[in-house]
Amino acid sequence: MTALMHAASRGQTEVVRLLRPLEARLQDGRGWTALMHAVGRGHEECAGLLLLERDLRDGEGRTAAEHAEGEKMRRMLLNQPTLPRLPDSLSGYRLIAILGKGAFGDVYAGHGNGRNVAVKVVSLGRHNDEERELLRREAEILPSLDHPNIIRCLETGEDSLDDIFVLVTELCCGDIRGEMDRRRKARSSYSDQEVWRVIREVAAALTYLHGNRIVHRDLKPENVLLAPDGRCILGDFGVARALGDSSWMGTYAGTQPYMAPEILREEDYDKSVDVWALGVIGYEMCTGGRPFRNVAAVLEKTPAPPLEGRPSELAALISRMLSKDPERRPTARDVLDEAEGHQ
């Protein structure tokens, strides 16, 4: 049995979530999958995380649904979503289960070329010309990036007949937003070292991007993904922008609670907006809440409330990252250098 199978049989949801990208779709000597082990022990939450195995059969030719005893579990396993057809250029991949739906497309768990993958499928017909341009920009930027803290793009494809665009990336096991929510429900907080680690790894990704004259522009907890080995991985480059001759840009972009004041004021801005967003994430990890209650509070001169109960170095760094004057914010490299001193 694999570690994932052991975790699934014991109902260890968080371990299953962590190991799923690496070990899903492996089978033991009987042909059993981790999903079958979860179903056999009645662990519904673990089974829900392993639906990308439901098409596999054991040594006797039975699927996980045929192992299910409870009606609720059986219905979940038999509730097959309608999966889109992939372009011929991506015929080596097969979609298995849906992972999530978003404004810019649906994300599926897939398998191909000997690995588990995430497949983002976008129906271009639903989007206007500006949105199509953002999608194409992501397809242009992402394959050129090579950094351990940035999502790896494996392949892209487009089907003009079905009018879809497809992006195949490595499969991650969650994101910081989901982790924040789980901790909030469990009344558990991040340790100082955990906050330092997230800041350090995201700052490393930003340092690489900014060094290549790319600004992410939509940094938020949902876009900080978690790899099976615990690494933070920056994803979703839909509104990322490659800087031209100028280091400034003026397009309104991002997610409001993480937008720097200069974006909200529709002024020209530069790569320091990414540092601001990381400061918001760091503050949220430290306190469980955001530093400013609304847009008006971001636009006021009043700084964020001071961080209580955290080391002075960490509180001071986050405070500088949240400076409302972009010229007073540290660069991503400055943040990385300081965070590396707290490993």
Automatic annotation (TrEMBL):
The keyword Ubl conjugation does not apply. Belongs to the protein kinase superfamily. NEK Ser/Thr protein kinase family. NIMA subfamily. Keywords: ATP-binding, Kinase, Nucleotide-binding, Serine/threonine-protein kinase, Transferase. Residues 320-343 are annotated as: Disordered. This is non-specific serine/threonine protein kinase. GO terms for molecular function: ATP binding; protein serine/threonine kinase activity. Residues 93-343 form the Protein kinase domain.
